[in-house]
């Protein structure tokens, strides 16, 4: 083991791309034959300790043992770890990799007490846009704030997906400024985020946009429309329910940032809900809810009209500007 390495590292948090990079850098300090990778679901704390001690007897050049998923370890496993770190094998580095763990968690306390190092990195959900900007900066790429917001809308908040798309866009940009238009051209919307075009158009009371977005959803599904049209109705019904909820919160004086905590959603998304809610009165939202229920009934045999026509008529009715 190199003199500057600790006997143990706890590498954890929600910033999975950063955690992966840290593990790869650590693995780069050891040869392939000198590294073992395990998962905590298949190895106990006692097993990991035994492996460290056994390797330390004959691996003077240094060995690395990586145990992933350690947030699943029990108190007994952590007890074994703490005892080992009081006298760790001199030629072995133990890397414990996990998800969302705090500094005051039992395993973090055990590693810190054993003169190990805590590398805990989280992606703050309230500052996810800043995180995206920072990832572009790591690539030496400048990016517009609107481009970061567009990426979040298209990809969602999964950091692995975001990191992959950032790598792709940064490679394409070759150091040039990345704009929102660039992101929209280069990044394909995930299945769960393509709904935004529909809900945003409805929120803006944009009839043409709603019709185009719904048609796009139906075409991209690749399934019979008899199955996908009800899904479009479900998307809108759920969105309207969210709008009514935030509208009630705003009426109570709750700001969007606090509502984001209550709803456990990204502040940017909740801010959009607040903005869209101001385009409809409470009475209009009640009417929209009733109309969507009627549409659902029509699609389930309550009407002789084609489903496409029923959907189009309802979309126009619930989106039309006042007056």
Structure description:
The protein is built from 15 helices and 5 strands. It is of the alpha/beta class. The protein has 3 domains: 8-120, Rossmann fold, CATH 3.40.50.300; 125-186, Helicase, Ruva Protein, domain 3 (Orthogonal Bundle); 195-319, Zinc Finger, Delta Prime, domain 3, CATH 1.20.272. It has a 5-stranded parallel beta sheet with strand order 2-3-4-1-5, with helices on both faces. Strand 3, helix 3 (75-85) and strand 4 form a beta-alpha-beta unit. The longest helix is centred in the last third of the chain and has 27 residues, at 225-251. The chain starts with 7 loop residues before the first strand and ends with a helix.
Order of helices and strands: EHEHEHEHEHHHHHHHHHHH
CATH architecture name of the largest domain: Up-down Bundle
Major β-sheet annotation: 5 strands, parallel
Terminal Cα span: 76 Å
| Fraction in helix | 55-70%
Read across the widest sheet, the strand sequence of neighbours is: 2-3-4-1-5
CATH class category of the largest domain: Mainly Alpha
Look up the CATH topology of the largest domain: Zinc Finger, Delta Prime, domain 3
Q: Judging from the principal axes of the Cα atoms, what is the shape?
A: elongated
Number of helices: 15
Uncertain stretches of 5 or more adjacent residues: none
Structural class: alpha/beta
Question: Beta fraction of the residues?
Answer: 5-15%
Q: What is the total number of structural domains?
A: 3
Radius of gyration: 26 Å
> How many β-strand runs?
5
User: How confident is the prediction overall: mean pLDDT?
Assistant: 87
């Amino acid at each position: 083991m190199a003199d500057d390495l600790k006997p143990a590292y706890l590498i954890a948090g929600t910033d999975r791309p950063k955690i992966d990079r840290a593990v790869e850098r650590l693995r780069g300090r050891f040869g392939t034959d000198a590294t073992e990778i395990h998962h905590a679901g298949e190895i106990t704390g006692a097993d990991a300790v035994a492996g460290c001690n056994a390797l330390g007897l004959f691996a003077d050049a240094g060995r690395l043992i990586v145990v992933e998923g350690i947030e699943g370890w029990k108190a007994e496993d952590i007890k074994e770890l703490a005892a080992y770190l009081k006298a760790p094998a001199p030629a072995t580095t133990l890397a414990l990799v996990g998800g969302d763990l705090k500094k005051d968690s039992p395993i973090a306390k055990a590693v810190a007490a054993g003169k190990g190092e805590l590398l805990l990195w989280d992606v703050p959900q309230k500052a996810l846009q800043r995180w995206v900007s920072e990832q572009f900066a790591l690539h030496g790429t400048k990016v517009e704030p609107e481009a970061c917001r567009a990426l979040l809308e298209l990809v969602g908040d999964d950091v692995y997906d975001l990191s992959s798309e950032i790598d792709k866009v940064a490679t394409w940009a070759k150091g040039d400024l990345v704009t929102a238009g660039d992101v929209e051209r280069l990044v394909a919307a995930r299945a769960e985020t393509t709904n935004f075009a529909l809900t945003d158009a409805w929120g803006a009371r944009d009839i043409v946009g709603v019709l185009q977005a719904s048609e796009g959803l139906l075409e991209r599904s690749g399934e019979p429309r008899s199955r996908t049209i009800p899904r479009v109705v479900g998307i809108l019904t759920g969105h309207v329910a969210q709008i009514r909820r935030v509208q009630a919160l705003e009426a109570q004086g709750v700001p969007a940032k606090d509502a984001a905590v209550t709803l456990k959603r990204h502040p940017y998304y909740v801010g959009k809900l607040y903005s869209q809610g101001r385009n409809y009165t409470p009475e209009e939202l009640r009417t929209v809810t009733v109309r969507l229920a009627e549409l659902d009934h029509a699609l389930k045999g309550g009407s002789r009209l084609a489903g496409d026509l029923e959907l189009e008529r309802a979309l126009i009715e619930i989106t039309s500007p006042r007056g």
